[in-house]
Amino acid sequence: MSQRDYTLSPRVDQVGILDRVDRFTKRSIKKEAKMQGLKMALNMIDLTTLEGADTEGKVKQMCYKAQHLHDEIPGLPTTAAVCVYPTFVKTAVNAVKGSGVKVASVATAFPSGHSSREIKLMDTKIAVDNGADEVDMVISRGRFHQGDYNFVFDEIAAIKEACGKARLKVILETGELGTFDKVRRASDIAIDAGADFIKTSTGKIKPAATLPVTLVMLEAIKDHYYATGKMVGMKPAGGISNAKLALQYLVMVKETLGGQWLSNEWFRFGASSLANDVILQIAKQTHGNYQSKDYISID
Questions:
Q1: Is the peptide bond before 111 cis (omega within 30 degrees of 0)?
Q2: What is the distance between the alpha carbons of residues 189 and 151, in angstroms, rounded to a whole number?
Q3: Which segments does the entry list as coiled coil (predicted)?
Q4: Which of 135, 190, 227, 265 has CB atoms 3.0–4.6 Å from 195's, for a disulfide?
Q5: What CA–CA distance (Å, rounded) separates 272 from 46?
Q6: Active-site residues: which are they?
């Protein structure tokens, strides 16, 4: 993989991005198309628990929910994946066995990204050796802010190699990048270094995912696809808590990248709380009235 001068990454038309996002948010989706979109969104969610208080019991409970989102509504899909710390990968693998739900693990000194490459590679290897299908890594955020783009590139490439057959999602932590130009630059670096997905956020700082930032990242994916023919996935994470917003993301993906990205192979939501609101909206479409929030489990 060859590197390039990332200070020359394309400049982003901020006014154009905001105008397009405004138009996406005004689209109306009704009836059958809405139900299809809601089930699609549900099947794109990575249910996540990444807390210091995580236990095997909590991980098992989350894995059960991923497979049985609501037993009273027939035809609901599973979520795409569950995401845990490397310590809990083996527990999650056993809990979702045979369901089609993927197991993702954060790695590389999540969420700060501050550690040696040796430890980051070991972290990744532990996750993969325990059966992780996917690895969510965070870039060396400090090195990016210093302008050490080649370091960031080399580290992503090394982690990608350590993943073996596991797919790599690269977290940019867009909420601290400051400008759309920097979001575009970080996206280009991650894509060029071999990311299978680019991901907005760790979920640990605000702002997390936003529609404008996600659109900038989708444009980077589109340009890479036009240049190479290779698809790269997208995962907005954090701050997406309601079904209406999720549908707006799906409209934006379809109109920017095309329908081939509308599957959980190429698009994910990192938003555990989103699942509950999507289920409530599906129940409304199914039964004709809104259910109490007690209708679904919190975890």
A1: yes
A2: 10
A3: none
A4: 190
A5: 7
A6: 136, 199, 235
